[in-house]
Write a structure and sequence with these properties.
CATH topology: Sufe protein. Chain: A
GO molecular function: iron ion binding; iron-sulfur cluster binding
Distance between the termini: 42 Å
Shape: globular
Radius of gyration: 14 Å
Structural class: alpha+beta
Strand order of the largest sheet: 1-2-3
Helix content: 40-55%
Number of domains: 1
GO biological process, one term: iron-sulfur cluster assembly
Pfam family, one: NifU_N
Number of helices: 4
Protein name: SUF system NifU family Fe-S cluster assembly protein
Family: Belongs to the NifU family.
Order of helices and strands: HEEEHHH
CATH architecture: Alpha-Beta Complex
Length: 139
């Protein structure tokens, strides 16, 4: 039952991505590619006052990568950079180790917890999150 709910949530984010599109000039822009397949994305950030004011993405890829990007943008928008780092860490632990310290922090993104068992799909789920980490380092 829970697996079906999670599957529906992932497909909803894939079919109806949140925060898809460009942000105006003057924002951080980072192109990123999944190193293990053809999934690609461009991440746009408006960061100021130690907070993500707005975030958007464009991209093409599998349902896991695009749903994960959509979930990530919803989750981090409006959060402080400190909160965002915690979320990146928790999501990465969930995917790689299968045991985040606080899965409830991840909200819809927790629906991707089953990807942990699919090692070949780890990079799909992590693509947007890794792009966000890189973008925050260059902003």
């Amino acid at each position: 039952m829970l697996d079906e709910l999670y599957r529906k949530m992932v497909m909803d984010h894939y079919r109806n991505p949140r925060n898809k599109g460009k942000l105006p000039e003057g924002t951080v822009r980072l192109a990123y590619k999944n190193p293990t397949c053809g999934d690609v994305m461009v991440l746009y950030l408006d960061v100021g006052e130690d907070r993500i004011h707005d975030i958007r993405f464009e991209g093409e890829g599998c349902s896991i990568s695009m749903a994960s990007c959509s979930m990530m943008t919803e989750l981090v928008k409006g959060k402080s950079l400190t909160e965002v780092q915690v979320l990146i860490t928790q999501f990465t632990k969930m995917i790689k180790d299968g045991n985040p310290e606080d899965i409830d922090l991840l909200e819809d993104a927790a629906s991707l917890s089953g990807v942990h068992a699919l090692r070949a799909r780890h990079n799909c789920a992590l693509m947007g999150w890794q792009a966000l980490q890189k973008a925050l380092q260059i902003q």
